[in-house]
Amino acid sequence: MSRLPGPHGQYEFRLNQVLNYVDAHLAEDLSLERLAEQAYFSRFHFLRLFHDWFGESPYAYVRRRRLEAGASRLKYSADHIGVIANDCGFESADGFSRAFRQYFGVAPTRWRKKNNVMTEAAAIDEETRWPVKIVHLPTKRVAYTRHIGTYGEPVMAQWQQLESWIETNGLSGMTRYGMWLDDPTFTPPAKCRYDVCVELPDDFCPPPRTPLKTIADGTYAILRYQGPPGDSNRAWLWLLHYGLPDGRYKVAPKPGFERYGADLPAPDIVAQDCELCLPLLLQTTS
């Protein structure tokens, strides 16, 4: 599917696999050597290609992703800073705090107070109520096409590309997913990633070099949203505030997504009809 125009199009598949690997292994060794191995390039070739493609070095990208993942945890959870630091690949809470202050210009504790999503969500009026259900979703293998850049209307081109690929490969009627991988409130808009995915049957053999990934199983709070795409953020905030029953759950540190079943159309500029799926974890007591 997705190919970049110009000289790097043939390598986009492998470079996107590196971005996926980084997200899945933030707490582990993400050295230049390890990332180059994931892309099947030499260190020198990988370093040059990655910088030319994404506008920053692999080292700068990993550091930014670790700090953004930490910011997301600060915003969407009450987890201790030491736990967040460890999960995001920092050796200590002090090291994370220094790096966070250097990047965001403010200490993590202060940033959390100013950017707590629950405070923002609590300001939403209760005039509109959405039913919320808590369900377990199984693991899904998907093919995807990725948009990198500002969210909004450009994303619709990715949906059109996916719908064409679905028709070509005889996959009409399969569930589709829209997945934001970055938060534009602290990720530079030009670096934001959005994946448009289609679920694959177990016996489907995709064409060579089709971008594939797995949506992990887990517990999700699900809300049916129908309305303009520009208003869906309000529904997400409502789900965050009212969709976590009795304090039993917290938001899991992985992307949520929109789910479009076989009976639902793909979104367009004026209308959206989908299930918003918020990943959850059971709260643990210390």
Give structural notes:
GO terms for molecular function: DNA-binding transcription factor activity; sequence-specific DNA binding. This is AraC family transcriptional regulator. Keywords: DNA-binding, Transcription, Transcription regulation. Residues 16-114 form the HTH araC/xylS-type domain. 39% of the residues lie in helices and 21% in strands. It has 286 residues and is of the alpha+beta class. Strands 1, 2, 3, 4, 5, 6, 7, 8 and 9 form a nine-stranded antiparallel sheet that branches. Mean pLDDT is 88; it is low at 2-8. It has ten helices and nine strands. The chain has two domains: 9-115, Arc Repressor Mutant, subunit A; 132-282, Multidrug-efflux Transporter 1 Regulator Bmrr, Chain A (Alpha-Beta Barrel).
Low-pLDDT stretches? 2-8
The CATH architecture of the largest domain: Alpha-Beta Barrel
| Name of the CATH homologous superfamily of the largest domain | Regulatory factor, effector binding domain
Give me the oligomer status.
single chain
CATH class annotation of the largest domain: Alpha Beta
Q: Work out the count of structural domains.
A: 2
Strand count: 9
* Principal-axes shape call: globular
- Please write the string of helix (H) and strand (E) elements: HHHHHHHHEEHEEEEHEEE
Please compute the radius of gyration using only Cα atoms: 19 Å
- Please give the largest β-sheet: 9 strands, antiparallel
Integer average pLDDT: 88
What is the name of the CATH topology of the largest domain?
Answer: Multidrug-efflux Transporter 1 Regulator Bmrr, Chain A
Query: Can you count the helices?
Result: 10
- The separation of the N and C termini measures 46 Å
Strand residue content? 15-25%
Helix content: 25-40%
Classify the secondary structure makeup into a structural class.
alpha+beta
